[in-house]
Design brief:
Radius of gyration: 34 Å
Strand order of the largest sheet: 4-3-7-8-6-9-5-2-10-1-11
Helix content: 40-55%
Keywords: Membrane, Transmembrane, Transmembrane helix
Number of domains: 2
Number of helices: 7
Number of strands: 11
Structural class: alpha+beta
Shape: elongated
Distance between the termini: 29 Å
Length: 371
Amino acid sequence: MNATPAVLRYLAHELTTRWRAQPISPFARWLLTLVLTAAAGVFLAGFAAAEMARRAQLQHLGLDTLVVRVPARSALGEAAPWPADSWAAPLSHEGELTWLQQLPQPAFNPWDRPLPAFAAALPTLAALLPAEAPAGRAVWFTRSLPAGRDVRLTFHNVPLVARTVQPAARWQALGLDEFVLLPPPAGDVTGRLDVMLFTPDAGHSLADTAALVAGFFTAENEPPPAVQDPSPYRRALDELVARQVQWRRGMLVALAGCIAAMFGCIGLLEERQTRYAQALLRSLGVGRGLLWASAWVENLLLANTALLCGIWLSGTLAARLLAGVNVISPDVMPLAPAQWLWLAIGVNTGVLASIFPLGRALRRPVGQVLP
């Protein structure tokens, strides 16, 4: 007759009896695991929120875009997106290139406030306007008015109609709250600045592009242009991400160590109380592995139910504590499933490590325990 079911029923009965007699032991393990995992979840969510906020700030400020300013050599044509003799034309194959000319005279909004004015080729203007808009319509980048409105402006005391547009991320690289794009005016280019906005494709380095641009002018023995290179900000983001990886690894190791120490110490204390019953079962033929596995399953049950509760608790805490970051929603779990997987690995690694001292205790000969 197979005695395994009877042994399993006895072990389950012994477990529930022990929990009822000493509820503080399982509750302490469950509660401490819950607190540790919830704190770790909030900790990781804070790192994720900081990274997301920094990335959003970079995109909002256009810091993924290189801006080059140099005195204009020739007038910007209407049809061509950049001058025919442009030194920057080869860059159009490596990313998004936009060529403007900053005009020395400002435009004026309906309230007679000056607006920086730029000349832009017709293809550039057309890309910002709906298809039904008249060709050559000016574009007013502003956040003070809803997008899509036609507003009357003046330039050189001449009225013109401009369509309002919300500034996109790369346009923020100009560092202006409001500005106007006009069709290229004729006349002398004295006082104009060529302004190039270049957003590289994935895999291209802004620092390398900035060095390449400077090399163009050095080779021609001309004064270097004013280059607005956001690479230092991007390097700061990369350093933040690298530090976060180190902190996350250290936190997971600390989490596993704390759980292993806590479960191991409590397990050894309980082993002293259940030593006689375990030795009696071993004398009846129950293997050490089954007794070891029963203790492991008990700790797995406590740890993983606490982990699941920790997921919910950390989501609630992170939504409240990180609400000012504007990247955490109360309805969205603050961490990606992969990060919760690593937390689960850390918790269960600690549980597994906590069972090894019990394995050594079970190797004690039965004759040393039973009278």
